[in-house]
Structure formats: C-alpha cells, structure tokens
Write a structure and sequence with these properties.
Blueprint lengths: L1 H26 L6 E5 L3 H8 L3 H22 L3 E8 L7 H18 L11 E6 L7 H14 L5 E9 L1 H18 L9 H5 L12 E4 L18 E4 L9 H47 L1 E4 L23 H4 L2 E4 L5 E6 L9 E4 L2 E2 L2 E2 L5 H4 L10 H28 L1 H22 L3 E11 L2 E11 L26
Parallel strand pairs: 1-2, 1-5, 2-4, 3-4, 5-6
Antiparallel strand pairs: 7-10, 8-9, 9-13, 11-12, 13-14
C-alpha cells in the first residue's frame, strides 16, 4: 500500500507541475476577465453512475471548488455559476427540497475553505430573486455574503432562483423608481444606467460562457452580460469536467479573441455614432419642425387648448399679423410676411405649421416657449422634449403627405388662378413690395432669428398658397388669407 501511495503522490506532484506550466503558457495570451459556467449534467451523471440524484449534485459542488481554483490560478476576475434557475422550482418537490438543504449546507461550507476564499480575496455573492428561496437558505446566503463583502480581488456570483429576464425586469423597475423619485431624469436613462442595476454590477461583461452536458442553449442565463461572449458547449457532464476541458475552451477563446475584440470595438463605435446622431436629430428636429409665426401677444397659439382657429383666421390682417411660409425658386423654404412688419418690431411666437383648421403641433408647448428669437436653446436640456415628440413628428408628416396627395389636383388649379390674379394686379399697380422671411437656425446651442429680404411681384397683401419644404415628401398646404 505504501508503494501505491507514494506513486500517487509522485503522480500528483508531476500533474501540478504540468498544470502550472500550462497555466503560465495560457496567461501569456488573453485571459477572460469574466468566465461563466452553466453547470449542467448532475442528474445524468448520477443516473450514469447508478447513484441517487442528490449525490450527483454533491459531486457537482465539489467540481465547482475545483473550477474556482483553476480560474483563480488563471487570473480570472469574476466567475459566475448557474446553480438553480427559477424554472427548476417546477421539478419534483422532493428533489427541490433536497436541493435547498444542499444549498444551505454548501453555502456555509464555503466559509470553511479559507485556502480558496480568504487566501484569494474572493467576494461571494448569491444573486437572483432570493425571496423565492426558503428562509434558512436566505440566511446562509446573507451570512456568506456578509463574511466576504470586504474581499475585492475576485467575485464569485452564485445564481440561485435566477433567470436573466427576471434580472433585467428588476433592473428596469429599479431605474423607473429612481426616475419617479427624481434621482435621475428620464432623458438620462441609457443602457449603462440599466446595467448598473443588474445583479452583476461591478463585474466586467462575460467573455467566455461554458455549458456542459452537450446542451446547446443558454437557458435564460446572463443574456445581457454575454452579448459579446465566446460560447463553448462541452459534451462533458459537469461532475466529469476537467482542467483539460477548460484548457480547450480557453484555447478556443484565444483563437477567436481578435474577432471578438473587433466586434466589440465596432459595437462601441456604432454606439458612439448613434449617441451623436441622437443629439444631431434633436437639434435638427427643433430647427426643421418649428416655424416662427408673428402673432399678437393677446392671441392664443393656433392648436393650443381653447383655440380652434387656424393660421388663416386673421382675415385681412394676414399680411401684418403673421408670417406665412413660401418657397424660393431654388427650393429653399423661407418665411414671408408683409414688409411693414419686421422681427424687431413684432415679437415672433413659435407655433407649428397647420393645414386648414387642423394644426400640426410638432413639438410640445414646453419646448415652444423656449424657441423665441434671441432665446438660448440648450439641446442637452431639451432632448427629453424632443424625444417625446420625435415619433409624433414622423407620424404627422406622413399624415400631412397623405392628405396633400388628395388635394394635388385642386392645388394646381387654385395656384394657377391666384397667380394670374396677382399678376394682373401687379401690372396695374406697377409696383413691387418687399417680403421679409424668417428662418430659425440653431447654432452653438442658441436659437437665432435671421431675416432676409426677398423681392416678389405681389399686390394687395395676398400670400401665395405654397408647399412647406418642397424638397421632402411631407408637403403641407398653407391656405391663402384673402
């Protein structure tokens, strides 16, 4: 017996030396910062060995300790294991009860492995909907988390009563609560905001996800965190999983690392461009969809509460009380009004383009109040208002375009008739008037009302019925004010 005992010790020493050499070689290449395991195959292992099911789970726990030591030797910063899913509560109640007793026992047993937990400064976190677990399991989980909360070198996340959908749902609920309390603004909520509320907060994204037992599915595990992860599906049952299996998975990860890194860089660049485009669209939406119309201070905004009139309700005062929308010969949209009124003598009130008696309100009233000439427009502070109305803008543009198609024939004949009348009046009077146009431009975060003078042969203060923005398909008719 002593001979075989000595031989076993020699073989163990040789194996440890070989393992250290292999780990040194692996650490010369990229090592995943976050490694996740779906520990599957415990029951099949027990059936294969002719053992009780609970024995298979006990062997799976022992393999978890081995895998934890391998990852610590490799320098992995975070290890996440799928121990018990919410869906597992559907199993035989007797098996579930046995698993809960085993979980309580093994969680407390982790505190006894000071050579692994304390020596490597491992912080143990039991994550999931812990309220679904029995009280004794919750107490054991809280005890082990409290005992290791000061460790910062490595994280061990044990997922119990967990699914990724439930994790994301609670994260969104937490963010919604913060918005309701006023801690953060709704416009400041991003993917990073939600990620900070996940169970794995403080851990890097999953780089390598391994599932054992030959199953090729994620089973609702780490869906958010593993978006750029290398997925490895091993045919080995979890209790039989060895360092050689982990070695193969790591070699596969290192072989694909350049592609994974390129994908992540492309995703970050795309996200940065999207963020920039959102800000650009926010400013452009305010510039393109808000038209300055000069109105009397005592007159309510068209389309506002309690006002059912349209832009043409001023009758004969149209030339002096409002700015109409016209189009230049080069297709540039400008605002025209009577030359007797100017932006300096008549303050402009921002409203949206209307069609007939149905005004199109493209931006909220809260935003309109800040779109007067000379006021500063802070796009960062106004992005929430723009986001709220952005979808409405596209819908209303589509509706305006659809409505304009039905009036296209009528508009053509009306334009021809009115142009002939105006041309005749112009020849009789032999004079031309100047028309002032106003365009709202957003430059350097400020709204500036710029005026320019156009020469037009018109008479009697009549405004031509024209199309807003002829370069775009969303064409809205502005009726003439006779």
């Amino acid at each position: 017996m002593s001979y075989f005992g000595t031989l076993y010790e020699v073989a163990a020493c040789v194996w440890e030396a070989i393992k250290k050499c292999l780990i040194a070689v692996l650490r010369a290449g990229p090592i995943p910062k976050h490694l996740a395991f779906i520990m599957d195959g415990n029951r099949r292992f027990a059936t294969k060995q002719g053992l009780q099911t609970i024995t298979g789970h006990q062997q799976g726990y022992l393999k978890l300790l081995d895998a934890l030591q391998w990852c610590l030797d490799l320098g992995v910063e975070a290890i996440t294991v799928y121990a018990f899913s919410i869906d597992n509560f559907r199993r035989d109640p007797r098996e579930v009860a046995s698993l809960m007793r085993l979980a309580e026992e093994k969680l407390l047993d982790l505190l006894c492995h000071k050579d692994i937990i304390d020596a490597n400064q491992v912080q143990v976190r039991v994550i999931g909907n812990l309220s679904l677990l029995p009280a004794r399991v919750q107490q054991a989980a809280n005890q082990v988390m409290a005992a290791t909360c000061h460790h910062q070198q490595c994280h061990l996340n044990i997922c119990m009563a967990y699914t990724s959908r439930q994790e994301m749902a609670q994260a969104v609920h937490s963010v919604h609560k913060q918005v309701a309390e006023g801690s953060i603004a709704a416009g400041d909520v991003t993917a990073d905001t939600i990620e900070q509320e996940l169970y794995t907060q403080g851990c890097p994204p999953v780089d390598l996800l391994i599932r054992t037992s030959g199953e090729h599915r994620l089973s609702d595990f780490m869906l958010w965190q593993s978006r750029y992860a290398q997925l490895v599906f091993s045919n080995t049952l979890w209790p039989d999983y060895s360092f050689w299996d982990l070695l193969q998975a790591l070699l596969q990860y290192q072989r694909n690392y350049p592609d994974l890194e390129r994908i992540q860089q492309m995703a970050k660049a795309t996200q940065a461009r999207m963020s920039e485009d959102v800000m650009t669209k926010s400013c452009t939406a305010l510039q393109d969809c808000s038209v300055l119309h000069g109105l009397n201070h005592s007159k309510a905004l068209p389309g506002s509460a309690g006002d059912d009139t349209d832009l043409e309700a001023d009758g004969g005062k149209a030339s002096s009380d409002r700015l109409s929308v016209a189009s230049t010969t080069d297709g540039t949209d400008v605002d025209t009004s009577d030359s007797s009124a100017s932006s300096e003598s008549r303050p402009a009130s921002p409203v949206c383009v209307s069609r007939g008696s149905s005004p199109l309100r493209l931006v909220p009233s809260a935003t309109l109040q800040h779109l007067k000439a000379g006021d500063e427009l802070d796009c960062l502070k106004k992005r929430q208002e723009v986001a709220d109305c952005w979808h409405g803008i596209e819908q209303q543009r589509s509706q305006a375009y659809a409505a304009s198609l039905g009036d296209e024939v009528g508009l053509s004949s009306t334009n021809t008739q009115q142009e002939s009348e105006i041309s005749g009046r112009s020849n009789e009077q032999g004079s031309s008037q100047h028309t002032t146009s106003a365009a709202l431009e957003v430059k350097g975060g400020q709204s500036v009302l710029q005026s320019r003078t156009l020469h037009a042969g018109a008479g009697g203060g009549h405004a031509l019925p024209t199309c807003v923005n002829r370069r775009k398909p969303h064409c809205t008719q502005i009726d003439s004010a006779d």
